[in-house]
Structure formats: C-alpha cells, structure tokens
Amino acid sequence: MDERNNNFDFDFTPIGQAIKKAREARGMTREQLSGIIGYAPRHIQPIENEGQYPSIELFIQLITMFDVSVDEYIFPNKEVEKSSVRRRLDAQLNRLDDKELSVISHLVHMSDNHNGTASILCNCNQVIKLCPCFVGIVHRTVLSDIGTHRVKN
Predict the structure, then answer these.
(1) Residue 41, number of CB atoms within 10 A of its CB
(2) Nearest 5°: CA angle at 44, between 42 and 49?
(3) Per the confidence metrics, is the pTM higher than 0.90?
(4) Among candidates 109, 100, 105, which has minimal Cα distance to 135?
(5) What topology does CATH give the domain 13-81?
(6) CA-CA distance, 63 to 75, in Å (whole number)?
(7) Which of 53, 121, 140, 150 is most buried, judged by most C-beta within 10 A?
(8) Average of pLDDT values for 14-32?
(9) Cα distance between residue 87 and residue 59, in whole Å
C-alpha cells in the first residue's frame, strides 16, 4: 500500500502572479511569451491568474526567464536574501545610466522625507518632467504596485 502523503495543498497563485508581474514589467505580452516558450496564451493565462500548476519544465523555464525567486512563496517564514521585486528592480536599475540613477535617487530621497507611497505618487510628475524616460519605470515600479500595497497618507 502506498503510504505517501498525497494531500499536498499548495496555492500556486502568488507564484503565477509574480511571473505575470515580471512578464509585464518587461513589457512582454502573453502572446509574445507563448511564441518564445511554445505554449499557447490560453495555457499561460491560468498559470498566471488562477494558480494552475505548470509542468516542472515550464515552471523552471518561467522562473529563470523572469528571474522570479520562489523561496519567498515556498518558505514564507524563511528570510529571503532578495525578493523577486527587489531582483527585478535591481535588473532595471542596472540598465540605467548615471543621470537616470540620480533621478531615481531623488525619488527615493523624496520618499524618505515624506509619508511613503502617497508622497511618491504626488511627486511622480516632477520626476517625469526631469526625465521623461521614467514614465514607464514609474508606472511599472510604483503605480502598478498600488493594488498590492497600502498607500500611506
């Protein structure tokens, strides 16, 4: 008789959402991804949005392609060296030149001197005026996270 515990109940939804967020942060559509990995968009959608388990091959392909750390989801009580969000932000920062980095530094400084996310949003227009190339970065890193984080007033 098989005595293995087959009552494995793991919610894949947060990992699927992290994969989706990483894909969108790269400006990639589900259709573009499907062309790269060889799976139809209708196969990818439930993985990203409904917590459907992908095959182990597809899982590894997606998390390595988008640099998603799964430790934070599989071992939620363990201290993770760098979260997926931090790793994506590091990758974005590595693509910026010194002028662009100084604008980001200014944005972080404004956040430190004010009341968190709400203050950053109030000052986004000033940052975008300084460097229009930040429209996409501000939208992806700040505005898209509003739904998942509390905005302090």
Answers:
(1) 13
(2) 100
(3) no
(4) 100
(5) 434 Repressor (Amino-terminal Domain) (1.10.260)
(6) 16
(7) 140
(8) 92
(9) 18
Q: Which of 62, 2, 7 is nearest to 30 (CA)?
A: 62
Segments making up each domain of the chain, as ranges: 13-81, 96-148
Helix (H) or strand (E) holding 32: helix 30-37
Question: Helices in 41-150 by DSSP H: which ranges?
Answer: 41-50, 56-65, 71-74, 84-94, 98-113, 117-130, 134-141
Per-residue pLDDT tens digits for 41-79? 999 999 999 989 999 999 999 999 988 888 777 777 766
Q: Encode pLDDT of 76-89 as tens digits.
A: 776 666 666 777 77
Q: Can you state the angle between helices 98-113 and 134-141, rounded to 10 degrees?
A: 40
Question: Per the structure block, which two tokens stand in for 62?
Answer: 């997606």
Q: Could you give the CA distance from residue 137 to residue 119 in angstroms, rounded to a whole number?
A: 17
Token pair for 46: 């439930």
| Res. 123: pLDDT tops 70 | no
State mean pLDDT over 34-39: 94
